[in-house]
Structure formats: C-alpha cells, structure tokens
Amino acid sequence: MARTFFITGASGIAAATARFAAQKGANIFLFAKDREQCEAIARELTGSAFFVGGVQDEAAVTAGIAACRERFAEIDAVFNVAGMSGRALGDGPLHECSTEAWNALLEVHASGTFFVCREVIRYWLAAGRGGAILNTSSVLARFPERQRFATNAYPASKGAVEAMTIAAAAYYAPHGIRMNVLAPGLVRTAMSARAQADTAILEFITEKQPLVKGFIEPDDLARVAYFLLSEEARSITGEIIRADGGWAVTG
Asked: Is residue 154 annotated as part of the catalytic site, yes or no?
C-alpha cells in the first residue's frame, strides 16, 4: 500500500521532496499558503492533493490534516519544511533585530511546526499507530556566520524546532512515532535569492560548502528527507541531521 506524505510548503525543498516521494510511489498531500504553487505541483503529480493555508494558522492546520485523511485515509509521514526569511522584516544582529521579524519567524517556524506535529500526533495516538516526522532547522541554528548571515530571529526560531523535536522524540518513541530534524546549509531556493545574487556570498559559499562547491540543490535534500521518513530509517529518531555541504566543519 502506498504511504502518504503530508508536506508543508510547495516550492524549493518541499516541491523537490514531493516529486521524489511520488516517484517512489507515495501519495502526496501539500499544505501551503500559495495556491498557484500547490496547483502547479498537483498538475504535475497525478493523484496528489493539497490544502491552502499557513502553518501559523492553527485552525487551518487542523483542517488541512483532516482534508489529507479524508483524501488518503492515512498519514504515514510528515515533512515540516515551510518557512520564511526575516530579512525584509528587519531580522539581523540582536541589537538591530526588529520585534516584527522576531515574532513572525517564531510564529512560522516554531509555532507552525508545533501545530502540525501536535495535530498529527494526536491522530496517530488515537489511531494506535506510529509514523515519522521530519522537521526542518538550519545549519545557522548551531553554526552561525557573523559577517554575511548575521541574523538572530531566524536561528532562534530554528533552534526552537530542534529542541522541541528532540524532547518529543523521547516521549513518543514508545508509541512508534519517530521525530528527526533536517538542518540544511545554504540551498538554491527562492528564499536564498538575495545570496544567489551577491558575488561575495557566491565566492564565500563555494569554500564554505566545499562538498557541493556552492549552493545545495533541493533535489539533494529531497533524497535525505525521503530516507529519514521511510521505513529504511525505522531505527532513527531524535537526531539532527546536517546536510550542509560541509558548512559546519569548514571553520
């Protein structure tokens, strides 16, 4: 029987993972706020479905998970990857970081991930079954870069995701529920457009992520995500998996 993947987001890493999982025979259900992106993926992946909403909207999350269950009956794997950059809102060094950026990033990353995890875990516990959750952090949560990526709200929100995931993984392991974190480096997505257009950052990232000699491609992360959500990773929980092209070890 095909496994059902509930994925938040409909572009970048989310879209790449949806495509990869679909190629492996999975049912795909997207939860994202951009209807056009959702519709584009749905046209591409025959049999997939979606719900339009933001992860920070608790009621929308509840409705989206209910819609997924109505469409596919079960949810086997959840990939929380929807996110945002706070640069335009004033994220930056602590003394410059705006309250708006701080609140927005925590709302989307920390609260949004919490809402999705809580709702699907409630369903799994009530059904007496297990499942797999993969939440998304960032290499910046533990390996900051002070000159070119001097943000505070973004890594703080991702650090909250890491702590929540590990605490929950310990509690729910006896129920057969696995929870892990994927912490990417700099990925070639729409969210990194600023960095992709900056010559200095392009030179920096070639050395900072030497395994890929530049930006990580979403397809590379899709393979890692699929593995961690698959039955092949059934003995792995409570882990923070860096897929950062070597960022953390380059000093």
From this structure: yes
